[in-house]
User: What shape does this take?
Amino acid sequence: MSKVVKGWLYSREHEWVEVLSETRVRVGITDFAQNQLGDLVFVELPQVGAEVVANQSMGSVESVKAVSDLFSPVSGKVVEVNSELEDSPEVINSDAYSGGWMIVVEISNPDELSELLSAEQYADFVLEG
Amino acid sequence: MQAQALKRTPLYPLYAQHGAKVIDFGGWELPVQFSSIIEEHHTVRTKAGLFDVSHMGEVMIEGPDASAFVQSLITNDVTTLQTNQALYAAMCYPDGGTVDDLLVYKQGEQKFLLVINASNIDKDVDWIVSHAKGEVTVENVSEATAQLAIQGPLAEQVLQRLTATDLSQIRYFWFQQDVDVAGIKALVSRTGYTGEDGFELYVSAADAPSLWEKILAEGKADGVLPCGLGARDTLRFEARLPLYGQELGADITPLEAGIGFAVKLQKEQDFIGKEALQKQKAAGVPRKLVGVELIGRGIPRTGYPVFAQEAGEQDEPIGYITSGTQSPTLKKNLGLALIRAEYAAVDTPLAVEIRGKRVEAVTVKSPFYKR
Assistant: This one.
């Protein structure tokens, strides 16, 4: 069974959202997602300053076998990017919830957070497939 | 809506207990990986891995005219084979496009086993039957036949512990019939699709699960792992072994795909596609399969367009990527590309279009890996 972190929020596209403050969130992909994707060998993330839009593509991850879009769970401006993933995308596999973080976003619409799932809801969502 | 049921090999019931992640692969429910594609890949390059390749098709051709018939179907020269010897070949359409690539096993003067791609079984059997001539029988034995492949530098020593037959006497592209392996009757062939030494074992479907477990148990101490189709694909890719549907197809000739070594245009008897291939060779192949390495950031993937480096926005691509990945052995982002022949020389600067962006690339020598 894949792990979830209690208290964080989750999208149906398998991103996690850690609320850092009223206006800032950190975003990554879930343990379930990394497990489904397999060995990750390439990541393309937005740059600092870029605008991301909820439910729209913000980049991509590639396993040995395939390319998958990353969907932003929130709208806003990217203020930090985990540039270490560029050289070490495998950290997402080994440490999806910590070292595998992708971006920090200054959110423009806090109401969007209510659209996301709780840890318990996400765990059920994954089980239902 | 009920989708058509996926086909399964006789080993399907064992996948789960070995941790397999199962995917739909051309209508077959097959393991893409057991542990991790990269780990399985390195295991085959350094130790040995065991693959279930029972989805492959097998067609038996027998009769007094079997040799002449097979000779008329394939691009390679079957008359060079001795009994217990195998060769790699293509079957072509009259225009030189490829029906399939295959192995031909000469089991006797009047008995040939053709091993074909899983996704092409129905098409190939129809093709073979419709071109049958002389006194021959054609039998699709795919369902009754399972195939396991043990591949890697330790393959021989692990398998040797399970049989009294001296495996060192089976040379590359030769085989032995009716070999007793762990009490199971197998055709043991020194062939493979990974670029490593190893064996392919053809057994009855009923015997496959037991043989699978016995090989894994015997190889456990040597680090032998069950391996999936993901690693099989990265291994064959590094060794530049073509995959039908990517490097080969109805619109790609074997000469373009770089398997001219398996096309014997000088052989006396006619074969389907011979004339077209002779013409193409005389005129010069219009496209060639080349190795491509990305210099900019990105991984080339099947279908991505390839451009000349100086090409403008309006220029047409010069070809496309047929297969690509990050090579687990070389840690480089590599592709095979079918491109116009005038760009095929090594060190030609190119660009690969990745999701609308052109990324700098260069042609490189292939195979990317040789043992």
Remarks:
- The interface with chain B takes residues 38-39, 41-42, 44, 60, 62-65, 67, 86 of chain A (CB under 8 Å).
- The CA atoms of residues 46 and 52 of chain A lie 8 Å apart.
- The longest strand of chain A covers residues 57-63.
- Helices of chain A lie at 31-37, 84-87, 90-94, 119-128.
